[in-house]
Specification:
Layout lengths: L6 E4 L12 H9 L2 E4 L2 H10 L6 E4 L5 H12 L4 E5 L12 H10 L2 E4 L5 H7 L8 E6 L4 H11 L5 E7 L3 H11 L5 E6 L7 E6 H10 L7 E6 L8 H16 L2 H12 L3 H11 L2
Parallel strand pairs: 1-4, 1-5, 2-3, 2-4, 6-7
Antiparallel strand pairs: 7-10, 8-9, 8-10
Helix pairs in contact: 3-4, 6-7, 7-8, 9-10
Bound molecules: S-adenosylmethionine.
Amino acid sequence: MDNGKSILYIVPTPIGNLLDITNRAIYILKSVDFIVAENIKHTCFLLDRLYIKKRHLYVLNQYNEYKKINYLISILKQDKTMALVSNAGTPLISDPGYKLVYECKKLGINVTPLPGPCAAITALSASGLPTNRFCYEGFLSSKRDKRIKQLKSLLYERRTILVYESNHRLVELLEDIAQVFYDNRYIVLAKELTKIWENIYGAPVNELINYIKKNNLNIKGEITLIIQGYSGSENINYIKALEIFIKLKKLLPLNVSLSIVKSIFKIKRNILYKNFLNKNK
Ligand code: SAM
């Protein structure tokens, strides 16, 4: 470790199985001047289990993140080292820390990341779905209207989609996916990863809902969903053009609507109209 220099270490911690802590994470947690934790009790429990003598601890969570930054930065500036940990997994990934890292970078304070556990990546690696291109969506909104909008924007996403969800909203989310992704999309449920009751099960969404209900999998445990990307043959640009055309046609004369869509999407008017008629047969 670099002594006498301000460094913020980003330290991932296990998402269930304690053996997943890395040697380097233990070393850093032992040697830094301060630990910044999402939850003191949670982190003290981890430090006890790792036989790490308590360091000076500060709390940084979603409620105080903005208020605490200046104070933490002022400490770091005194040539101190700090480790940022969350309750589980990699800090900043649907966890606090972004603002702190942003400010450190802005001020030229060294930020050193450690590799380690992350539920989304762990789930993806065993999902059997394409891993070459994926997008991480974190938690979708808990408000249904907003969630439906988010899902609609993901409908034609060709990359594998990674989503976190709490157990009590799981079935609700899957039912929304089934409704918006009308193609009975294949989804992998990764539950309790690295723990005793680990369960990784993939099925088309309608089948998955039945499986979850039958096995009461929505009652407890931590859940990550890996959603197959869109594999249809329709061109996304074209689908958008048709959607906009349908909306315009309700407000404007047919010819004007066709011309507007043609000028934006560079799609021939007759092709657009023929497909519109086909869709509305
Ligand atoms: N920063 C963490 C990471 O790197 O994975 C994620 C934090 S986020 C607040 C917590 C969510 O991650 C849970 O609600 C669940 O969706 C997912 N998660 C965490 N641990 C998990 C596990 N053992 N198995 C499956 N999903 C898990």
